[in-house]
């Protein structure tokens, strides 16, 4: 480019940068300027280079120069390969010459940082040869002064960026070459860094003493830059080298200086996370780590001593540093304890310091220590926390005795040093910290967890870790844990005769109950092998928990909140009752006593009493599950008591259902025959009512007759509780379910018949009629003829609104969800609208669940129910279903049907269900996404109802409804392509070469019995809308939906490759290929960009020889040339590695689209230089 045109282009770019940065620019002017700058970045690469170099000249403003550096970095990162070798060499020389432009004393720090980043980027791209050429001049420059030394440190800091930060572009030889080159230079780089650190630290002290503050700040800035550089090498350079060249000593010395201590501590934090490698001398590595232990323990002890004696003298900055030190020690102890285990005194001192951190009143320090104790105490027999030890013990030391002792202690791990006193202290602190700072809870001087500071959801994670630690200790020191938790319970109970308790007391009692549950479950529920526990320990445990149980049985609490807590304490002892069943009868009697002590009232707006009664009934379920067979002898007594209470009207239907569920849990421990007998007993009265023709004729003939039921609130809720019990019966009966996802419905054990199988024939038909009538309430003409109350009842509940908005605690009077089990009849003061609304939601929830759970029974369900009746009930009015209901139907019913339907029934069941579902969903989703993407608001059919607040909330809810349904529909496609339902589909590796002729391929029909995806493709009416969804989802901005549809796309590709079906092959080779590439232009898809590139690679590698479409699709991209595609084919032919082929595909797609695929570019820019625009030194230099 001639000089004048280049200058003109630079002037235009500078003007555009100024317009973008100027707040006075109009939005249109700013947008036009931004578009121009983007065109320069994507335009001719040589013009971009010349323009950018002119923009970084010293005669430009700082803002323009900064933008020029970013444009140069963009070129190096994304377009370097477009330059010839000579041009790259010239570019590198020009870049190195820029160093002299930014070493002035008044140069902006950000410009120095960006220059260093650019130099490092060029070196990484050009490789080791350029670095070897540059290194001598770099060393020479560092001797010129503090500013030059700071710039050198910045360059050294950014050089290993691609080693420490994953970068897909540097996988393979280039990354190894960079690592090799820098490793060979460590003998020069590390001494240089130590020399700069020492030299400028001493100079900073000296200038500060002379009151030469400007010079002192320059030297301090250099020290900080060197520390940042050192930290970049701490992650990968050999620990022995870091010790050898003095950097461990140097950084340790700086921990005492406030301006540098956080950066120095960061060095230790990084290095402490590393583990002893197998290819180094053990003695040298351990010596370096022992040195680090001592450095950190010394600085830690200084803080802990001051904190204990003068806590008021420690400010927040010191606490911040202490937190960093503690976190570093946690990393060190978790990964490298084996380095000091031979030194018992040092090990014990380290553990004592970590215990002091655990006891510290500051939550941040306590939490860091919690992570350490979890690691070192878990599985001590396996010494899990100890890093793997090299098999070569010859280097462990000259003394054989010392080496043997070290190895022996390493085998035993840390547990040999943990005393009973340490265990007791940890437990005591853990029980006290089970609370959060809710305004009412207090725990002495401890700083409790605050939701405002740490977050509401994080408290659950924190408390889970506390409970895990309690369980770990209980499994190792059961008697200590038992005694500690009982002691804590006695403290929080206080005066047991006190009728009411304060909110603080209730919080403390709930926390102690969680601790009791953790201890009891760890001791009696599997963590401890009770068969191997010695008799003395068993006797002690029995005495402790028997004493606690007698104390609980003697309590006379009748206030609802206390009764709930009382019940929870009793059910927490469930695992104890499993081993000591003599106490079961008294516990059962006490629970019934608690239940009957609470009045049944419908006038209580808060529902406290009824909610407490439900909690107590739930305690029966938990005890039944935990105590296993211990309750079997008491089943008749429980049944008689239930019958007596029900006969006297003292047991509500929801409570009865809970107790029946407990019966099912008890029966499950006695075997299938006992379950069948219990089910027959429990279901017999329901059978008589449920199968009556009269109520079905009166209420289920059509939707208008269903509305007549709404006038009979008691019968309406009786129906609800019947359906919910069917749901509970299906959940609780049968054999113990595996956590594994079912792969195919045919894996049922031969001869096994689920206890509920014989009941499905009378349960399901009325339920289908009921659901059909509910669905029809939204259809015409029934929707128009309804009363205002019914129309309003079809709106969302407050709970549903709050859920969509991510809010909690929004339920108000009259809006309690029926799933809470609180509604048996309409309560006083409750509107009929809310009564109907809650009933409709509850029936839909439980009814769908019954169908989905029944489907898991496999053939027992699918062969006893007419598929046509199911299709009619579920799909007749699918087109008028609201998105929230449709999502629920898919999640609870359709997906289980897909997973468990026998293959020979696919034509009868799945085709008829999926065709109307896919047709409607494809049309509805396409319309709603189009309105969201083009008009900014999702148009959904849901009746949100009255929502206090801004219109923005409604828009948020509408978009959430759209995204939720989209993801659920894609989940159906994911289920259709699951491996267990497509086991007849060969892998691409099995299919072999990609150039086979159609004549040797199978017909699509040959896959219909062994591949559900193949079966689906034969039914055009069902397949077409599914295929449309699979391509349209890539244009929608929902990465989670894309993640779910990827397996379906993969199955389609496999089918297209394995079969001779021309239409499917053409769809995959053209439509799907184009859509996936388009999906890579959506930035939110960057998370799964590797999977999407993998699909592109499969399509091209396996179909391009059989169909011209893949090549045509690539050649249609804006920046590709024919020779690019030929070079790509040549690259593919030279490797059979899928990983390398994916990398070639990725590079081609970026080239062909001019780096416009944002999903790939976004991933690439995450590896770019970051945090180089603000200086990190202290504003006031002080020691």
TrEMBL record:
Domain Exportin-1/Importin-beta-like: 109-267
GO molecular function, one term: nuclear export signal receptor activity
Pfam families associated with the record: Exportin-5, Xpo1
InterPro entries in the cross-refs: ARM-like, ARM-type_fold, Exportin-1/Importin-b-like, Exportin-5_C, XPO1/5
Gene Ontology cellular component terms for the protein in this record: cytoplasm; nucleus; RNA nuclear export complex
One record GO biological process: RNA export from nucleus
Record domain Exportin-5 C-terminal: where: 316-1164
SUPFAM superfamilies per record: ARM repeat
Listed name of the protein: Protein HASTY 1
UniProt source species: Miscanthus lutarioriparius
């Amino acid at each position: 480019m001639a000089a004048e045109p280049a200058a003109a282009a630079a002037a235009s770019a500078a003007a555009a940068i100024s317009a973008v940065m100027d707040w006075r620019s109009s939005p249109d002017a700013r947008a036009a300027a931004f578009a121009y700058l983007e065109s320069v970045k994507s335009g001719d690469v040589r013009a971009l280079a010349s323009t950018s170099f002119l923009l970084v000249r010293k005669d430009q403003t700082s803002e323009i120069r900064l933008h020029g550096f970013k444009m140069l970095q963009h070129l190096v990162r994304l377009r370097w390969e477009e330059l010839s070798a000579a041009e790259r060499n010239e570019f590198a020389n020009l870049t190195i010459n820029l160093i002299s432009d930014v070493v002035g004393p008044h140069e902006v720090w950000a410009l120095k940082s960006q220059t260093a980043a650019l130099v490092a980027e060029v070196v990484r791209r050009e490789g080791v040869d350029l670095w070897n050429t540059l290194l001598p001049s770099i060393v020479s420059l560092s001797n010129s002064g503090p500013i030059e030394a700071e710039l050198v440190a910045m360059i050294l800091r950014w050089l290993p960026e691609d080693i420490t930060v994953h970068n897909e572009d540097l996988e393979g030889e280039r990354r190894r070459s960079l690592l090799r080159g820098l490793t060979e230079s460590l003998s020069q780089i590390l001494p240089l860094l130590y020399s700069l650190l020492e030299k400028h630290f001493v100079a900073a002290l000296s200038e500060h003493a002379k009151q030469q503050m400007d010079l002192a700040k320059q030297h301090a800035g250099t020290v900080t830059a060197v520390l940042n550089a050192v930290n970049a090498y701490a992650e990968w350079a050999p620990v022995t080298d870091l010790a050898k060249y003095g950097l461990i000593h140097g950084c340790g010395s700086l921990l005492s200086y406030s301006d540098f201590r956080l950066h120095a501590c960061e060095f230790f934090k990084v290095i402490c996370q590393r583990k002893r490698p197998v290819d180094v001398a053990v003695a040298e590595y351990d010596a370096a780590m022992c040195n680090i232990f001592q450095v950190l323990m010394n600085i830690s002890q200084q803080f802990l001593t001051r904190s204990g004696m003068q806590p008021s003298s420690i400010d927040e900055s010191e606490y911040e540093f202490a937190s960093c030190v503690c976190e570093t020690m946690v990393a060190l102890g978790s990964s490298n304890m084996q380095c000091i285990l031979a030194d018992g005194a040092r090990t014990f001192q380290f553990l004592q310091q970590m215990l002091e951190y655990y006891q510290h009143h500051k939550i941040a320090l306590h939490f860091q220590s919690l992570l350490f104790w979890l690691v070192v105490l878990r599985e001590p027999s396996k010494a899990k926390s100890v890093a793997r030890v090299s098999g070569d013990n010859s280097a462990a030391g000259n003394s054989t005795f010392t080496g043997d002792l070290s190895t022996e202690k390493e085998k035993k791990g840390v547990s040999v040093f943990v005393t009973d006193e340490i265990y007791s202290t940890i437990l005591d602190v853990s029980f006290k910290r089970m609370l959060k700072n809710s305004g009412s809870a207090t725990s002495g001087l401890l700083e409790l967890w605050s939701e405002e500071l740490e977050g509401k959801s994080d408290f659950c994670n924190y408390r889970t870790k506390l409970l895990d630690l309690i369980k770990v200790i209980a499994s190792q020191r059961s008697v200590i844990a038992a005694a500690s938790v009982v002691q804590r319970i006695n403290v929080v109970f206080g005066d047991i005769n006190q009728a009411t308790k304060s909110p603080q007391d209730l919080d403390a009692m709930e926390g102690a109950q969680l601790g009791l549950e953790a201890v009891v479950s760890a001791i009696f529920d599997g963590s401890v092998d009770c068969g191997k526990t010695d008799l003395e320990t068993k006797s002690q445990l029995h005495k402790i928990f028997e004493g606690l149980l007698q104390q609980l049985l003697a309590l006379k609490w009748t206030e609802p909140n206390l009764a709930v807590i009382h019940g929870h304490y009793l059910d927490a002892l469930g695992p104890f009752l499993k081993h000591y069943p003599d106490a079961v009868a008294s516990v059962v009697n006490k629970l019934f006593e608690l239940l009957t002590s609470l009045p049944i009232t419908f006038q209580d707006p808060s529902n406290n009493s009824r909610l407490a009664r439900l909690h107590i009934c739930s305690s029966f379920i938990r005890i039944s599950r935990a105590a296993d067979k211990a309750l079997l002898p008491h089943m008749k007594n429980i049944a008689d008591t239930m019958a007596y209470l029900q006969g006297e009207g003292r047991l509500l239907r929801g409570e009865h259902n809970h107790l029946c569920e407990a019966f099912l849990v008890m029966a499950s421990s006695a075997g299938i025959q006992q379950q069948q007998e219990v089910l027959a007993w429990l279901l017999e009265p329901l059978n008589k009512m449920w199968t009556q023709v009269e109520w079905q004729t009166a209420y289920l003939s059509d939707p208008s007759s269903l509305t007549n039921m709404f006038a009979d609130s008691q019968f309406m809720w009786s129906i609800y509780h019947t359906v919910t019990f069917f749901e509970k019966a299906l959940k609780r009966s049968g054999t113990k379910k595996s956590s594994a996802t079912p792969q195919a419905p045919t894996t049922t054990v031969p001869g096994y018949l689920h206890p509920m199988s014989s009941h499905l024939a009378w349960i399901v038909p009325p339920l289908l009629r009921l659901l059909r009538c509910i669905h029809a309430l939204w259809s015409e003409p029934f929707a128009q003829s309804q009363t205002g109350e019914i129309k309003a009842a079809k709106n969302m509940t407050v709970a549903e609104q709050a859920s969509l908005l991510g809010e909690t605690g929004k339920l108000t009077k009259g809006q309690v969800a029926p799933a809470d089990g609180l509604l048996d009849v309409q309560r006083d003061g409750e509107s009929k609208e809310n009564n109907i609304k809650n009933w409709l939601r509850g029936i839909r929830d439980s009814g769908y669940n019954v169908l989905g759970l029944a489907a898991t029974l496999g053939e027992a369900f699918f062969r006893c129910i007419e598929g046509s009746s199911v299709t009619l009930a579920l799909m007749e009015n699918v087109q008028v279903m609201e998105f929230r209901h449709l999502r629920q139907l898919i999640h609870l019913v359709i997906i289980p049907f897909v997973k468990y339907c026998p293959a020979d029934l696919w034509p009868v069941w799945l085709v008829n269900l999926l065709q109307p579902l896919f047709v409607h969903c494809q049309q509805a989703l396409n319309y709603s996404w189009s309105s969201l993407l083009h008009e900014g608001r999702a148009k959904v059919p849901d009746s949100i109802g009255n929502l206090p607040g801004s219109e923005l909330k409604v828009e948020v809810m509408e978009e959430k409804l759209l995204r939720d349904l989209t993801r659920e529909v894609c989940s159906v496609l994911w289920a259709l392509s699951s491996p267990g339902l497509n086991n007849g589909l060969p892998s691409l590796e099995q299919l072999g070469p990609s150039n086979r002729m159609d004549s040797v391929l199978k017909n699509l029909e040959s896959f219909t019995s062994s591949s559900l995806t193949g079966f689906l493709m034969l039914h055009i009416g069902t397949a077409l809308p599914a295929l449309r969804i699979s391509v349209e989802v890539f244009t929608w901005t929902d990465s989670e939906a894309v993640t779910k549809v990827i397996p379906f796309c993969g199955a389609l590709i496999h089918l297209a490759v394995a079969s001779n079906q021309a239409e499917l092959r053409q769809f995959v080779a053209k439509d799907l290929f184009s859509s996936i590439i388009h999906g890579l232009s959506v930035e939110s898809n960057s998370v799964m960009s590797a999977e999407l590139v993998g699909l592109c690679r499969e399509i091209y590698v396996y179909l391009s020889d059989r169909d011209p479409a893949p090549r045509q699709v690539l050649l249609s991209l804006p920046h590709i040339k024919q020779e690019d595609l030929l070079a790509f084919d040549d690259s593919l032919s030279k490797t059979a590695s899928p990983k390398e082929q994916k990398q070639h595909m990725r590079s081609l797609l970026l080239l062909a689209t001019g780096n416009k695929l944002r999903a790939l570019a976004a991933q690439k820019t995450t590896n770019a230089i970051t945090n180089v625009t603000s200086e990190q030194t202290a504003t006031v230099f002080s020691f």
